[in-house]
Here is the input.
Amino acid sequence: MSNVFKASWDKWVWIFSVIFIGLLGVLPIGMIAYALTTPHADQRTLAGVAVLLLVILAVVYLFSPQAYAVEPGELIIQRPGTDVAIPLKTIERIEVGGGWQVFRGALRLFASGGAFGFYGSFWSSTLKNFTAYATRMDKVVVLYRTTGGPIVVSPDEIEAFVAAIREAKRWR
Here is the structure.
């Protein structure tokens, strides 16, 4: 049996996502319309760039966290593309905190900084190398692991999520 916890967007993720979709979703439509209505437009180049922008939009969405499932022995980050499984036996400590403190001054190494969430590889002076699967900044859970860097998640129900992890891990 698994406990599934939603990963709702906060207002900042909504704002960043609308801007991102506006740029990478609407711009290609305008480029294609321009290519079709302008006699001397380089149609292949414009169509190629438009398709590339739409592919980037789709890939960024496919990696975005949607929910977190706590199952016996593992935490599953549910995404539209492939899910990520984190063995619970690697989690040694759990901290609840504010997302702004966690991400303040963090560098995106290979990550989304707001479009559909804050997820990917980051570096900060406090957490060093960490991986985030967060969709909100008001409260996050930092999962410190015995191997690999910390994992940052943002389930809607923080207390129930932490309790579910402790139960699945059989922490007392």
Q: What stands out?
A: The CA atoms of residues 30 and 50 lie 9 Å apart.
